Amino acid sequence: MFYLLNKYSLHKFAIAKVHLMLYQLHNLSAEEQTLVQRSPIWITLLIACADYDIKEEEIDRAKEIIHIKSFAVQNDVKNLYKNLDEHVDEEIDFALKSLSADGAERMLFLEQHIAKLNDIFPKLDHTYAKQLYNSLVSLATSVARAEGGLFGIRKIGQDEAKYIHLPMLQKP
Asked: Average pLDDT of 13-28?
């Protein structure tokens, strides 16, 4: 009986953790929730496409960072990364298929898509919105550092440097 009670309690705790992330997004439409949940993917592609050439190192680094953030981040955004980590390859493939082959069109689409978060941030709890914003900026910087430079000098290329602070987003 004690074992069943503990097992039930653990199951209840696990369900509560999953709902925590959903709770943070509960005021959003389904489309807005999807945009927030996929935002790390769009940020990854923004940085990876900044020089109009997507490099495997940048995508691999993003996957690594998403995985690390799924357990290492000490705030509610961790749940977003945990959910994304479970199917990150499929999400990246889906996002890549929606992008234009033309580099300039691709960048314009990514900037406009990411800028939609500006309308979403005020609908979120202010603390969560700040955590999400800071996490996305951190991700952008990490992806930009994945490729480029010589012996660690100028590790972030000029093209990526224009985007690592996510100028299309307003800090919440």
From this structure: 56
5 Cβ contact list (under 8 Å, min separation 6):
none
Report, as an integer, the average pLDDT of 60-82. 85
Q: Please state, in angstroms and rounded to a whole number, the distance separating the CA atoms of residues 42 and 68.
A: 18
Note the pLDDT tens digit of each residue in 110-129: 999 999 999 999 999 999 99
* pTM to 2 decimal places: 0.81
Per the document, the length of the chain is 172
Domain boundaries, the chain: 2-161
CA angle 165, 87, 77 (to 5 degrees): 45
Rg value, the chain, Cα: 17
**Planar angle of CA 114, 119, 123, nearest 5 degrees:** 125
